[in-house]
Each structure stands twice: as structure tokens, then as C-alpha cells.
Amino acid sequence: MPLTWKPEFVLNQPQVDATHREFVDLVACLDESQGEMPPAALVDRFKRLIAHTIDHFGQEDRWMTITGFSPDNCHARQHKMVLDVMHEVVRLAEVEGHLDPLRRIVLELEEWFPQHADMMDAALVFHMSEVGFDPARPDAFKPKNAEDADAIKSCDGSSCG
Fold first, then answer.
1. pLDDT tens for residues 49-75?
2. I want to staple 135 with a disulfide (CB 3.0 to 4.6 A). Which of 12, 15, 90, 158 is the partner?
3. Signed CA dihedral, 28, 32, 35, 38: sign only
4. For residues 29-45, b (16+ Cβ closer than 10 Å) or e, as one string?
5. Which of 13, 17, 16, 15 shows the shortest CA–CA distance to 5?
6. What's the CA gap between 157 and 161, in Å, rounded?
7. Domain map (residue ranges) of the chain
């Protein structure tokens, strides 16, 4: 069953929620129509998902950097891994004619997204709130105190999933 937007995906941060809703819609559209699409159209639609995902992850990675939630943490690494796989399945489809990995990753993204949003993105939203960061006004951000400026740089088994 295609990924659909659910109330439990709401993190009560307007920019994050809007970006997540768009991601869910793009993935769902791929899942619902991939069997009916010619291969070139499927690849083009997947490239639109990649373009969205580059912006989506880049936005979150910038917020992590600005707020001291350093981009060398597991959240940012997970973003990189997902994008690397997305780019590879497009390469396999375009260069080698293999569409199965692309079709498979759509299903994997449907499984991955709810967990990522619930753990990684919810932690980022909480962190931004705690340090007083408003994504709508990133230039106005000033850490509340010196401790807020210290970067979170590693994954200690309790913070990564």
C-alpha cells in the first residue's frame, strides 16, 4: 500500500511538516503509478523525488549546522546514504536498464520515512525548539547560551536508529 500522509507524521513545525508532506506525496505517486508508466517516465518522476530530497535533506542539514546539531552526526549521515542509493538506482536504470532497484527503493522509502521522521526529524525539531531556532527566520538565530552552541557530533547508541 502506498505511503500516505498520516496525523502521526506531524511534528508541529510548519516547514518540516510541509516538506515531509511533499515527500510523502511524491513517494506515493511513484508507488501508485510505477506499473503503468513507461520506464523513461518512471525515471523522470523519480528524479523529481531526488530533486525534492536534495532540497529537503539540505534544509535539515543546514538547520543542524546553524543550531549546533552538527552535520557529522548520524542524522546527516543517514541523509547522505539515502541520497547515494537514490542516485545509484537512477544510474542503474538509465545506464544499465535495470528498473527493479528503482522500483524496490520506492517501497523501501515507504518503510524508512515514518521511522526517520519519528526518530531523527522529531529530535531535530525538539532541538531547534530547545535552542530557540525558528526555521522561518534562520538569520535571526542566536544561541540561548554557550552550551546551545556546542555541536552534537556523534551517535552514542541511544541517539541513532
1. 999 999 999 999 999 989 988 656 799
2. 15
3. negative
4. bbbeebeeeeeeebbeb
5. 17
6. 8
7. 21-133
Residue of 34, 36, 38, 63 whose CA lies nearest to 49: 34
6: exposed, middle or buried (C-beta count within 10 Å: 0-12, 13-18, 19+)? exposed
Q: Does residue 156 register a pLDDT over 80?
A: no
Count the alpha carbons within 13 Å of 144 in the hemisphere toward its beta carbon: 10
Are the CB atoms for 124 and 75 separated by under 8 Å? yes
Total count of residues recorded for the chain: 161
| 23-32, 71-80, 116-125, 151-160: least confident range | 151-160
Average pLDDT over residues 27-48: 88
Distance CA 45, CA 38 (A): 11
